[in-house]
Design brief:
- This protein is of the alpha/beta class.
- Helix content is 39%, strand content 22%.
- It folds into 2 domains: 1-100 and 255-353, 3-Layer(aba) Sandwich (Isopropylmalate Dehydrogenase), CATH 3.40.718; 115-249, Isopropylmalate Dehydrogenase (3-Layer(aba) Sandwich), CATH 3.40.718.10.
- The protein is built from 11 helices and 14 strands.
- The strands form 3 sheets. It has a 10-stranded mixed beta sheet, with helices on both faces.
- α7 packs parallel to α8 (236-249).
- The protein is globular, with a radius of gyration of 20 Å.
- 47% of the residues are buried.
Length: 353
């Protein structure tokens, strides 16, 4: 079983190393092959996604990614050579990773870290984000007119909405069977197509309760009462924004994993697994980064690409146990808890396993 490991930039190598360590412990049959991506690849060969890295990903059974980019690369011209544009977007399109699963769950041990006082309410939701369409991928995607006018194009085709809607309903069937489809149908034609398609598909999943919500209302409702949501199904840019909002409600971006999935093939699902957070170059190399999001991404890798729900659940329970014991990294540290470095948090989770 080959895992392509793309540590990337900033804190990426630090957090990825802890996830690889735990996967190696649980699955000695895994073979890990490393490659450069993002700014690290650009510094090495002038390209954020070298062909050798893409070929490795295509030959692997799954991909584990850290983070890419940073201020150092923000002014590279043309923009297609910047890590976020030249690495992440091509990886998603070339590997057909159209379904982005982003769970956001309030852990009991971190309830006090939540900026919203939930009381007895529980936050446990999944944002199902369409990942290869919309405003980030349409061609012509962007245009500048002598610096005075800027244009971005948003395009969705029916089949793109159909396939992500089915994945959203499938996830809802595995959870509490409640799906909220989020759009901006009162303004955008792409959103009107989105709502139309979701409404057409809903009868195929009669057990799932379906509702529609405008994106601005959804952003407000997430702050007002995140416990009302089970599965949020939405398009690319809305999902990008809403999932970051949901992640901060849990207390830190350093806690949230994600899975970007392709179509099932021969009973297997190819996916790329990464933390929701960025490269955080301001703390890179200091041992301050929280590895939990990447470790939980490794748990998702086991669950979705290898159907190893036993070891996936073991990782999740080990994370809970470490947090219940009061261990914290700097982003979630509070009085009465024990401050750990990135590696020490990895140690705590390994010990819990």
């Amino acid at each position: 079983m080959k895992i392509a490991v793309l540590a990337g930039d900033g804190i990426g190598p630090e957090v990825v190393s802890q996830a690889v360590r735990i996967l190696s412990l649980l699955r000695p049959d895994f073979v890990f092959e490393h490659a450069l991506v993002g700014g690290a690849a650009y510094d090495d060969c002038g390209l954020p996604l070298p062909s050798a890295t893409l070929d490795l990903c295509k030959a692997a059974d799954a991909v584990l990614l850290g983070a890419v980019g940073g201020p150092k690369y923000d002014k590279i011209q043309p923009p297609e050579l910047r890590p976020e544009v030249g690495a992440l977007l091509p990886l998603r399109s070339e590997l057909n990773l159209y379904a982005n699963v982003r769970p956001a769950k309030m852990l009991d041990a971190l309830k006090e870290s939540c900026p919203i006082k939930l009381g007895d309410r529980k936050m446990d939701l999944v944002v199902m984000r369409e990942l290869t369409g919309g405003i980030y991928f349409a061609r012509p995607r962007e245009r500048r007119d002598h610096g005075n006018t800027a244009v971005d194009t948003c395009i969705y085709q029916r089949h793109e909405v159909v396939r992500i809607a089915h994945r959203g309903f499938e996830i809802a069937m595995q959870r509490r069977k409640d799906l909220v489809s989020v759009d901006k149908a009162n303004v955008l034609e792409t959103s009107r197509l989105w709502r139309e398609v979701v409404t057409e598909i809903a009868p195929q999943y009669p057990e799932v309760k379906v509702s529609h919500m405008l994106v601005d209302n959804c952003a407000m409702q997430l702050v007002r009462d995140p416990s009302q949501f089970d599965v949020i199904l939405t398009e690319n840019m809305f999902g990008d924004i809403l999932s970051d909002e949901a992640s901060m409600i849990t207390g830190s971006l350093g806690l949230l994993p994600s899975a970007s999935l392709s179509d099932p093939k021969d009973g297997k699902v190819f996916g790329l697994y990464e933390p929701v957070h960025g490269s955080a170059p301001d703390i890179a190399g200091q041992g301050k980064a929280n590895p939990i999001a990447t470790i939980l991404s490794a748990a998702m890798l086991l669950k979705y690409s290898f159907d190893d729900t036993i070891n996936s659940a073991r990782i999740e329970k080990a994370v809970d146990k470490a947090l219940d014991a009061g261990y914290r990294t700097a982003d979630i540290f509070a009085d009465g808890t024990t401050l750990l470095s990135t590696e020490e948090m990895g140690n705590a989770i390994v010990n819990a396993l």
